[in-house]
Fold:
Amino acid sequence: MVYSLGAKRAEFLFEDAEERAEKIRQIKLNQQTTFPYISHALMIFQFRAVITLALEKEKSEAKIVRFRQGVDLKNDLKFRGETPELVPDGFFTIEQDDGRWHFFLEADRSTMILDRFLGKLKIYWEWWREEKYKERLDVSRFRVLTITISKERKENLRRIAKNADPRKTGSNMFFFLSETEYSLKKPEIVLQPIWLSPKDDVKHKVLE
Structure:
């Protein structure tokens, strides 16, 4: 749950005109600086809820056994106290009868320039190539899932992601999906073949 004091409530709580004006100014400033971060966090939380419900609806043994984000994930990625070159928005593991699937999660709200996003994907590629977090995260293989706010943004990111690997042909390591394509009402959709990679236009399942 997210709570915030609004301007109308401030007018009710503070009778002094000068104090009320200052509180309203602070509220508007906080809204401008914190709401984008709240929206980003809620985007991650919703995806986590959707995929958790989807796995439950499958009535199989598949389940999320680990989900890390924020400070906890940053600490997991540290080597000898060094600050990690990239802190993903999330990292989670799904366990099935035949093994475990590992995913890094990026929640994109169209605020990042494309070149910077490409730089992040190149770092993921290096992590995969060097098996950098194989021991620390118990990762033998992983994918990078990027969720976006629109299909148009999804296609823009997918297009530039072709340049993430040295051959620049696109990799199935990177999957993309718009949050307009899944919901809490029908969470099972997220497990169906709706994910796209930069490699081609074939639709994939997240667990394949």
